[in-house]
């Protein structure tokens, strides 16, 4: 029964993998995937390019990822050690009562050992030897351990690329959030001027008896409401500046130059097939390499049931002092075959653990792949929808602007009342800010698409 159970554990049932569609549902084309390297440069903004470059060298999360590569290098070196011979030079000096030395031979040291009776109370014993050992990697498990460590090292490199990709996305997002806040601040300041001009007109009409006090009070309320937008936009701009500073590895408080308006959207990339994400996205590459490492460790655990053969040699000089020093050289060579009979179940448990880790890594990779495809699909859908929203806001703004211009003209000429002017003005000013936010959302969807496609 135990043998059957062991044989069952030596086989690993194949894991189900993510079933990917041949193309993205939200893609307009089936063209081959275009390169996504340095995607932020497509916005043609030197300030943004400089910030991403600075962040790659100064962000502490990126620097920590670089340190993990150094850790992985050390592990690779450690895993190479079992494949190489070991050597030590051991030197010892021992002293003790001479009687204790004689007792080891079943009697006193004196005449019984053929030595003079008049001997010192202490004896001295010294040895110096070189020990050499080598474990023969008969089953190849040490080679597999070294290769698994190299897989982990490659995964650490891809983790660094993934961290840099995430950082580029975060910096670009915060940068255009800052542009958005500053653009909204400029619009808010312009709206205050417009509202104050209309307030002057309303007060003038009130003084000439063409408007009532309610009209003046409502317009004053509109001025106050528009002024509230200014500190809000200023606070948002300050917050995004601080976020940018932290992302590039600087203390909050630094100011950054940005354009006055959001950029035009670059031409959309060709997204290719979902299966290409496994090669393009560094986080998926890292997950694949870690899966490879777990597969090798499962093989190592299986081979732990096999015997081990090791060679060792020892040679040197030993000496003893009992009244005078006497010395002699010595050497020995040993070949040891170790056959595991029982380890208390630890070897079997390690195999179970390795197989479970392999299954976990496989399932994590499948889940991460599906999530990556979903991120691309979501970004494609959001960009398309947000473009339609921008068009609707522009249409709303143009209609509101025409209504405001006409109602203001009629109000100035005394043909119409104040309420249509106020209604149209509020609609215009709302649409102005909504257009900026909607354009920022389109840009955010494109940034998410670039990030989801990988390749940094």
Keywords:
456 residues; Outer membrane efflux proteins (OEP); 2 domains; four-stranded antiparallel β-sheet; 10 helices; 4 strands; disordered N terminus
Can you put this structure into words, describing what you see?
The protein is of the alpha+beta class. The protein has 2 domains: 43-84 and 137-305 and 345-453, Outer membrane efflux proteins (OEP) (Up-down Bundle); 85-135 and 314-339. The protein contains 10 helices and 4 strands. A 4-stranded antiparallel β-sheet has the order 1-2-3-4. A hairpin with a 3-residue loop joins β3 (308-321) and β4. α5 packs antiparallel against α6 (213-247). The longest helix is centred in the middle third of the chain and has 67 residues, at 141-207. It is elongated.
Secondary structure layout plus pairing:
Elements lengths: L1 H9 L35 H13 L1 H21 L5 E12 H6 L18 E15 L4 H67 L5 H35 L29 H4 L1 H22 L4 E14 L3 E14 L7 H67 L5 H36 L3
Antiparallel strand pairs: 1-2, 2-3, 3-4
Helix pairs in contact: 2-5, 3-5, 5-6, 5-8, 5-10, 6-10, 8-9, 9-10
Strand and helix order: HHHEHEHHHHEEHH
Q: CATH homologous superfamily name of the largest domain?
A: Outer membrane efflux proteins (OEP)
Number of helices: 10
Straight-line distance between termini: 54 Å
Task: Please give the radius of gyration in angstroms.
Answer: 39 Å
Strand content: 5-15%
How much helical structure, as a percent, in the residues? 55-70%
CATH topology annotation of the largest domain: Outer membrane efflux proteins (OEP)
Shape: elongated
Q: In the CATH hierarchy, what is the class of the largest domain?
A: Mainly Alpha
The residue ranges in which pLDDT falls below 50 over 5 or more consecutive positions are 1-10, 105-113
Number of DSSP strand runs: 4
């Amino acid at each position: 029964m135990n043998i059957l159970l062991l044989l069952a554990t030596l086989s690993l049932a194949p894991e189900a993998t993510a079933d990917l569609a041949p193309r993205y549902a939200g893609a307009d084309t089936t063209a081959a995937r275009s390169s996504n390297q340095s995607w932020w440069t497509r916005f043609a903004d030197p300030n943004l390019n400089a910030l991403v470059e600075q962040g790659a060298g100064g962000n502490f999360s990126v620097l920590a990822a670089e340190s993990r590569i150094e850790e992985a290098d050390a592990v690779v070196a450690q895993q190479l050690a079992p494949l190489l011979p070991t050597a030590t030079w051991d030197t010892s000096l021992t002293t003790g009562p001479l009687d204790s030395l004689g007792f080891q031979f079943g009697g006193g040291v004196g005449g019984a050992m053929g030595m003079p009776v008049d001997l010192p109370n202490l004896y001295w014993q010294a040895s110096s030897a070189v020990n050499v050992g080598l474990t023969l990697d008969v089953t190849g498990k040490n080679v597999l351990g070294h290769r698994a460590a190299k897989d982990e090292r490659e995964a650490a490199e891809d983790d660094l690329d993934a961290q840099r990709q995430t950082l580029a996305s975060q910096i670009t997002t915060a940068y255009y959030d800052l542009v958005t806040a500053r653009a909204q601040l400029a619009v808010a300041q312009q709206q205050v001027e417009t509202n104050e001009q209309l307030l002057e007109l309303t007060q003038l009409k009130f003084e000439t008896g063409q408007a009532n006090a309610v009209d003046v009070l409502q317009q004053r309320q509109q001025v106050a409401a528009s002024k509230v937008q200014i500190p809000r936009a200023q606070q948002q701009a300050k917050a995004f500046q601080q976020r940018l500073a932290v992302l590039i590895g600087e203390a909050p408080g630094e100011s950054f130059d940005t354009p006055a308006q959001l950029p035009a959207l670059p031409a959309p990339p060709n997204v290719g097939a979902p299966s290409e994400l496994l090669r393009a996205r560094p986080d998926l590459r890292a997950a694949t390499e870690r899966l490879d490492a777990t597969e090798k460790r499962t093989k190592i655990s299986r081979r732990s049931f096999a015997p081990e053969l090791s060679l060792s040699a020892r040679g040197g000089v030993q000496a003893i002092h009992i009244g005078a020093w006497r010395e002699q050289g010595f050497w020995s060579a040993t070949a040891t075959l170790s056959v595991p009979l029982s380890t208390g179940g630890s070897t079997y448990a390690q195999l179970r653990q390795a197989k479970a880790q392999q299954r976990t890594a496989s399932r994590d990779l499948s889940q991460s792949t599906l999530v990556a495809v979903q991120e691309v699909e979501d970004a494609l859908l959001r960009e398309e929808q947000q473009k339609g929203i921008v068009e609707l806001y522009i249409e709303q703004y143009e209609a509101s602007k025409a209504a405001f211009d006409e109602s203001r003209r009629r109000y100035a000429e005394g043909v119409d009342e104040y309420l249509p002017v106020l209604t149209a003005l509020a609609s215009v000013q709302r649409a102005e800010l909504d257009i900026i936010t909607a354009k920022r959302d389109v840009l955010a969807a494109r940034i998410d698409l670039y990030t989801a496609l990988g390749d940094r």
